[in-house]
Amino acid sequence: MAGKAIQCYFSSRHYGIAFWGCLVQVIAVVQNKGGVGKTTLTRVLAEYFSRKGRRVLAIDLDAQCNLSRRFLEMEYDQADPDGVLPPLHPLFQEGDDGGWSGRSSSADVYFQGEVYPYPTRIEGLEVLPGHGPRLRQVELVRVGDVREQVHNRLYEFLVLAEVRDAYDLALIDTAPAKGPLTISAMRAATHAIIPTTLEPQPIEGLFGMLQLWRQEMHSRDTSRPPLKIAAIQPNLFRKGVALHEGLLDSLRKDTAVASLLSPVILHQRIAFAESDHAQARPKSVFDLAEKDPARLEAIAMCEYVARSLSEGGAGL
Ligand SMILES: Nc1ncnc2c1ncn2[C@@H]1O[C@H](COP(=O)(O)OP(=O)(O)OP(=O)(O)O)[C@@H](O)[C@H]1O
Ligand SMILES: [Mg+2]
């Protein structure tokens, strides 16, 4: 692995230097229904923006660690069937006496640890991987402590001077849930993307996420800029399927959705699924043939998001 890892040590005494209004743009990809393309979109956007020369930090908040697996050789805890762990960090040296386990993950942000993002094969892209057991532990924080220990924590991390110096953009992949970690992603974000498939349950999920967005706007510190929706992104669309065409049409007519809806429709295309595979060749949809429809759709989607970021996207 090439590139440098950055140590972002933080503790409550550092919070004083964090100022409101984070300079790093932060995109949270959220939708509590599973399988709609959160991880796929996060990965494609991370590749796109880093290829465009932006310094990107991809953060995996999902205990399934699917995003992390795309960029790192994750390891598996034999004692825990769902235990996906980050690999040893390239900076770690056996015998380090600092008490560091050698693995760094997004969960460390919530446990107030040291955070060492990992370099990836893509220049300009670093990843803060998930850690299955520890992220599940974060979700178990007591109700009375959740605001202080979870909801605000990722925001406090992303406004640290070290993070603002090292990155231009953070992209956060979330679990199919509306729990504390998803709320912390919305709290940290400057922009949200809500992918949806054109089926009844994901559409219900979309409206649930819009509700969560409004709640976030009401509980967010008023000195911060509002959370913008960069795109409601239709995905896995199949032309000629009446259900998909009918639901897309109704979203276009819905006054709460229409102005936030991406004009780019991502169709169900085998190239997106194939590029998700660890052994994929090419590894990125951007390396497909110039006229490949999946590549063209991915570029159109990323360009639309880039425009939403520069224009600010839609606020409340
Ligand atoms: N446009 C597409 N065409 C074909 N396959 C796709 C497309 N988008 C996503 N997929 C595939 O669909 C599956 C689900 O996508 P993905 O994992 O991105 O969803 P998710 O919302 O992150 O799921 P989860 O909620 O479980 O985290 C994956 O196998 C992915 O490769
Ligand atoms: Mg996912």
UniProtKB/TrEMBL annotation:
<dbReference type="InterPro" id="IPR027417">
    <property type="entry name" value="P-loop_NTPase"/>
</dbReference>
<dbReference type="InterPro" id="IPR050678">
    <property type="entry name" value="DNA_Partitioning_ATPase"/>
</dbReference>
<keyword id="KW-0614">Plasmid</keyword>
<feature type="domain" description="AAA">
    <location>
        <begin position="25"/>
        <end position="212"/>
    </location>
</feature>
<protein>
    <recommendedName>
        <fullName>AAA domain-containing protein</fullName>
    </recommendedName>
</protein>
<dbReference type="InterPro" id="IPR025669">
    <property type="entry name" value="AAA_dom"/>
</dbReference>
<dbReference type="Pfam" id="PF13614">
    <property type="entry name" value="AAA_31"/>
</dbReference>
